[in-house]
Structures are given as structure tokens and as C-alpha cells.
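Repro case for the chain-ordering regression, as requested:
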Amino acid sequence: MAYKRQIDRLPIPPADAKVHNVTCHYCIVGCGYKAYTWPRNKQGTTTENAFGIDLGEQQPADGTWIAPSMYNMVQQDGQDVHLAVVPDHDCVVNSGLASIRGARMAENRPSRVTGTQQQRLSDPLVWRNGVWQPTTWNDALDLVARVTARIVTEGSEDDLVVSMFDHGGSAGGYENTWGTGKLYFDSMKIKNCRIHNRPAYNSEVHSSRDMGVDELNYSYSDYEITDTIVMVGANPLETQTNAFLNHMVPGMLNGARFIMVDPRRSVTVNACEEVAGTENVLHLAIKPGTDMALFNTLLTYIVDQGWTDDAFIANSTFQGGEAVGEGSGQPAGLGSLDFAMQDIRTALSEGAEICGVAEADIVKAAEWIAKPKDDGSRRKCVTGYEKGIIWGNDNYRTIGAVVNLSLATGNIGREGTGCCRMGGHQEGYYRPSDAHVGRPATYVDQLLIRGGGKIHHVWACDHYKTTLNAAQFKRVHKRRSDMVKDAMDAAAGGSREQLVDAIVSAVNAGGLFVVDVDIIHSQIGQNAHVVLPACEANEMNLTSMNGERRLRLSERYMDPFGNSKPDCLIAAGVAQHMESVLREMGNDAYADQFKGYDWSSEEDAFMDGYNQGNPEVTYDRLRAMGNNGVQEPVTGFENGALIGTPRLYTDGVFTRHGREDGKALFLAAGWRGWQAPGKAQEEANHEFWINNVRANIFWQNQFLDQDNDFVQDRFPYPFIEMNGDDMARLGISTGDLIEISNGNGATQGMAYPTDTAKPGQVAMVFGSPAGSQGNVVNPGVNELVLPDYKHTWGNIRKLADAPPQAKAISFKSKEYTA
Amino acid sequence: MRCKKMVNVGRRQFLRGSAVAGVGAAATMMTGVQAHAATPGAQVDYPSTKLGNISDLTVNEPVDIEFPDADSPGVLLKMGEAVEGGAGPDSDIVAFSVLCPHKGWYMSYNSEDRTLNCPGHYSRFDAEAGGQQVWGHATQNLPQFTLRIDDKGDIYAEGASDLIFGRPSNVL
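-- result from build under test --
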């Protein structure tokens, strides 16, 4: 049954409603919204209202409208207030457009009045006598600090394993990465740590940075004035929706051609064909994992045709052969173009064979990217890439191959160009140095599986849904944390000291003490002994930058739910309790390392962190910059406005690698097949390639969407797109529940017949709470511990007929057809 | 590629005129004896609007309708087999708003796979599944009109399942 809201009228915001700047806290694009709040007992009229328009009239297409999902009733300063979060027409990022994620920000707020998001954590929880008991912050933090202090002083800080987000938006941002970063990288030097979506503490784009190229170097406006857009392993209509609709679509309407590199036909390809015409869209549906061979072939062809930008290469790239040799932290050599070409050179016929695409299509792509126009001028090209290669085969070398092509054709640092990751969350990273972590960093999941670590602090990560080799990880994590729960249960009735002794004994015997900081009680949180409730953007002030480095302050418009707090203040609380416990233990020197957290607000954390490195930037100045903010790096403050940088490297000087010569480096590497251990064998032994994909309707692992009726009604089970012939052969009907299995584990979902799915290739949505694709992903990573989630093979069988919920939904094609 | 925006100037002028008249009527009331406001319904009061007769419908041929007023275009469909929310003897007659609940673009009906498709941003809705969004940017399914069919086969719309794009109340 299609979900019906049965809402036919909404309150109208009055003319004097409070207005707050909001940057959408979901994806990297960071669309601008305005949040209107007003007292429960007030309302506007059709003629007198906050929008200043006549709401008694039908509004035209693209006009201002509060959808029911944009409305809620929340607490502000302890009072119930109406809330409407509406897309901002004046924000240059989205120009009034709203995505299916951002337009649900209001209804995804916790409200005791409307009953939304009652899954949100309101109070700290401590495992007591078989249940999680709500308790005070002091009680919970005291237990965390006493256990942590005992373990790191009796053993070492290496016994503390930390999983922590590194992103902006959501509950991340400069405030919260600083709070957690100061705790673990300054007060302590934790090296056994990992990031929310991968099993180590590392960059997803090491090679781009090593080449001197920051991965976010353009402005979204570059899409509007380019000649060719190249997308590699990205699906921007779904995952960077308004970067596509508000910037790439105008680019295509201005004449840009579009090249998509993706084994799967996505709705992005469909939309591009609608906008630009099929003759201006080239979908290179390569064999999975062969992106690097494609880009090496393209570069070889372009070099041989003489279509490189020789002046740019001479002025802005390294000229002296090898600059950096291949090594343990360096999966490929770096140097001049000539040096790199020795490894890169790939003949057209060889590239076509490896990638499974026609030679003519590779030539066409090369022409669209680099063949000079009839008047001799160079074509401009913007390249975007994301998880298809970031979580793909041979991460370091493949991303390097993509950046190589942009450098060789002079397509970085100029208007209408760029070579950027598309991004997932927004960015918001400001932490003390992580140099002590090392490179390659510890493979933390394997450390935990081997029995390493005694305490696990988890900050807004749910590895149950979003790690690789998840089946084994979950088994071990649960077994080890259950040992501690059993010990705590056995210590019932004892003193705090006896409880800490029992926990320490259990972890010394192989157990794991788990502290989970999150906004909901997550799946990995079921293993936690202490759960600490965090709040999100707009329940606190939060700063982040988007995919074009646009920094905004997203303002607090409501209270944190219950007694939840910003992560930075939770980190401060942990530090303060550590200090007092260590002092009590007589360890004053160590206790002193935990000073400096005297923050009463998130703004204090911002001033202690980001502002120290960027003294021009303050909350007041960002507030004044509104939803258009300022593009980083901020270079000054003049006439009441922050001065930013619309595009990096406009001077042709490349700096991300830290080299004094300012020259970009080419990456020297050739195709070597499946890089990660076990992939080739898994492919040979299973029938289906299990692609790991996203859908616009879900935000990440559905942590809020799992409690959103509109979303769960559409996809009550994780979809698995599958070719009809494959389904028929296996006796699978539309909506049937099916299982994917291999030697790593098994997962489950719902068959979604898809005409465009190739035989032998299925696409399963990532991160679902009802079926983790990570269960079947093997532990293989690259040299720098980047996971290859994308390349997994398994066999498929039917589990059950389509359940009633699945029978009731639409299984029609997702592609627009006029 | 992109179709014209739906609401034309003429219709807007017409509505503006009626809104002014409404304000005038309210002002008149204020000067009279003290009035007790009627208790408003939990649902807005929709006009009962005749959309056509069963005999006029052909399976899978869309009929343009307007409900609850001339500024809210919709579509009336006979699907040929029972569908979610279907009215009539065969439970197969449905009606939906055709303003996309994402940004209010006017959608077209694809009779081949029986979906409503938005040319603005490529959202699509399933006419056979209660207007469920198959794929798109809207945060609700398509407003489906509540239908009543009388003994003569006349089809009336008398309600809607969701808020129609571009208005704070389905009945302005």
C-alpha cells in the first residue's frame, strides 16, 4: 500500500517567524534551506506570512511550498514550536531545489508531539543487570573514564581502539571532529583507530593528494561552463542530486557532453540522455574493476594524438623523471609524464579487451575529453569520481590514473575544469596531526578479530551495516563484548570499584568493553556497555564544507533531544572525567594531558580548533555569510565579508603533496588485474557479481530512514536489482526474498527485476539495516587498507515468496519515460 | 525537453480576485453581532466535484480533470483491473493530482507502463500502486483523490490522500 499521509492542510508560518540558516546535513552537496520556527499558538495567514507571498493562490512550478515532510513540531528553548525547513531559492548550491533526503529534514527530527524519530537516544545508558538503564552523564562518563584509565595505564593506549567519524554534516563538522580529535590525537596518541566507513584511519584519495591535487578543487559552477563532464563510478542524480540538477543539467543544456564510466546503467545515464540527447551521452559500461585500464588507454591515445596540454605540463608538472619511488606506503611511483607513461602505456586494442568496450567508444571518449575544437582551442572537461573507484579495485592506482588524465589535458585549476571526488557526507575535518597513526595504518577490524584491543570507543559508526567482512566482524565483536556483559552481570550488587575490576578482568581474558556514542541505539550499539547520546546539526550549531569547499554555519533551531549533547562536548566530558580519575590514581602528569576542555558550547570547541588555524573565521562572520557561505580556503575578511577561494590551483601551483616545487606529479602504474587478495578466486567460483549501490531515497545506512514511514513503505526490504532472465532461471519472482552467499557469509534482500541489469550482475543497496551487503564482502584491501566493497561475487537462491509488504509496492522501471 | 510551467496568468488573476472578495466578506461579519466560529473539521471540506461518468472511460486512456478547483489539474484513469484505491464496480478507477509533489511540474501519463512522469527532474509515480513514487525526489506519494460513484455511474471526487503541491491547504 502506498503510504498516504492523509494531511490536507499545514500551519502557515507567520510574518514574524524566526528564520535560521540551514545547510542540509545529509550529502556532500550541502543544499541551503531556511528553517522557520514560530510559537505553537501562533499562525500566519494566506496574505500575511513569512514568505511574503499570497498563499491563497496556487503556487507555480518551482514556487515556494511546504511539503508535509518539511514540517514538524519540535522543542526550542524548552517550548514546543512549529518548524518548517524549506529549500532556499537564494542559495547558489541548490537554487530552491530539495532532494528526497533534505526535504525530509523536518520530519526526521525527534518530536514528542508528532511522534517522529522516537528511536533517538535521550539519555546515557549503562548496562545493568541485563538491561540498558538510563542514567546521568556523570554516572556514565565516570564508568567510561575509570575503565579506560585503568586499561591504558596498566597496558598502553594501543589497547584502546577507536572508531570515529571524520565527516561534516550530520553529527560531524569542524566542532565534533575537533573534540574527538583532540581527545584521541592530542591528549592521547591513539593509533588503533578507524573511520566510519572503512577499516583503518586513512585517506580515500591518497594518490590524488600525493600527486599534489586536493580532491575537491573546483566550483560546482564549473559544470555549467564546461565542454565535457566525465563521471567515474558515480551516480550523481541519486547521490549528489542537486549538484546534478542545478549544475550538471545546466551544463548539458549549455552544450556539454556527458561520459559515464560505470558497469551499471543508472538513472543518471537516463536523465543525461533526456537532457542532452543520446548522441551527446556516452556510457562506457566497462567490465567491473577495469577503470584503471580504461584511463591508461585514454591517456595513451591522447598522448599519441598530441592532444595533451603541453604548456600546462611544462609549467605545472614535474619534469625530472621519477620523483617518488614505489614503497610500502606508496603503492606506485610518481614523477613526470614521460616517466609515468612507461608504466601507463596501453594500446587501444588491449584497453578495449580488458574493459570489454568497443575501441571506437574509447576513441570517442578521448575525442570528447581532449580533441581540440575546429578553431584549435582546447576542450574543457570536468571529471568527478566516487565510490565506484574509491571503494573499487586498486584504489591508489586507479584514482591516480583518473587524475593523470586531467593533469595531462590541463583540466585542473581553470574555469570549466576540475578533477574531484563527488563525495558522500560533507567535509568537516579539523584535528591534530594523525602522523602517529602511520601509513599503512592499522587494519583495525582484523586487529579486533584477532583478539587485539581491550576497549572500543565507537563514535557514530555502525560497522554492523558498514564494514567489509562484516559477518565475521560481528560474530567476534559480539562474542567479545558479551564476555564483558556477563562479567558485569556477575558483579551485580558490587561497588563501582568491583564493577571496574570485573570489566578489567573480562577484557584481560579476551573481552571487549564497548562505549558507543550515537544519536540512536545502533546495531553495533547492541554490543555496548555504555551508550552516550549525541545530537545532530541544527540541534547544535555546526560548520561543514561541501563538495566545492563551501563553508557554512548551519544554525541551531531546536534543542538537543532529551539530555543528548554535541559530540564535542561529550568528548570534553570524557576528557574531564579522565583527568579527574587519573589524578585520583596519582598519575598527575598523564592527567594534565586531559586539560583544555573547558568548553560550555560547540562554539567554544570551534574556537579552540578550527579558529586557531583559520583566525578570520568566526560564528558571527559565518552567520553573516548566510547559506552561500564562503569557499575554503578563507584568505581574508574585508568590508564585512569573508574572502574565499572559488577554485584551487588557478596559479598552476600544486601543493597538496607538500612539495616545495609546487609541481604536480603523474602516477606511474599499469593495470594488474584484481589487486585485493581473494577477489580473482571469488569471481571464478561464483555466479553473480554483487554490485554495492546507493539509492537517493536512503541517507547512508538509513539510521534515521529506518524510522521513516515514507521510506520504509517504498522499500520494506533492501532491493537487489536483477535481470529477468536470471530470475526466471533461478525460479525467483518479483519481490521474492532472496539470499546472496559466498565464503564470507550471507545477506538477504528483495528481488527487483531490472531490464537494464546485465545477466550475472546484480546491484544491492548498501548499508541496509535489513540486510548488510558487507556480510559477503571479503576482507581484501589495498596496500593502504582501502576496502574493495564493490567487488564481491556470490550465489543467489530464493528464500521466500514476496511477503505482503513487498507485494504491495511498485516494481516498475526507475527510469523516466515521457 | 522541458514543458511549460502549469499555472498560467489567467488562472492566477482569477484566484486573486476571489481572495479579495473573501477578505471583504470577513470584514463585513466583524461589524455585526458577535459570531461564534464554527468548529472546523479535522479534514478540510472538499467540494464534491463530478469528474465524468463510468461510461465515458476507456481502459488506460487518461482523462484530464480539475480537483478540488480549476488550479489543481489531475488525471482520471480506468485501469482495467482492481488497483489500490480503485473505485467502481471493478475497483479499477483512480484519480491523481498531476502536479509533481517535488516541485510542482505538470506530469504526463505514460500509458505503456502506466506511470506519471515529471519532465522537471525525472520523478515517476505508479498509477497502479496508489500513486507510489517509483523513483524520484518527492517526499510523498502522489495525492490520490477519493472517489464516489453513484447509481448512475457518475464519478465524484470528494477528498485527497496528501497535500497538493503549491498550497498550504488542499482547498484554498
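Ordering looks correct now. Chain A touches chain B through 59 residues (CB under 8 Å).
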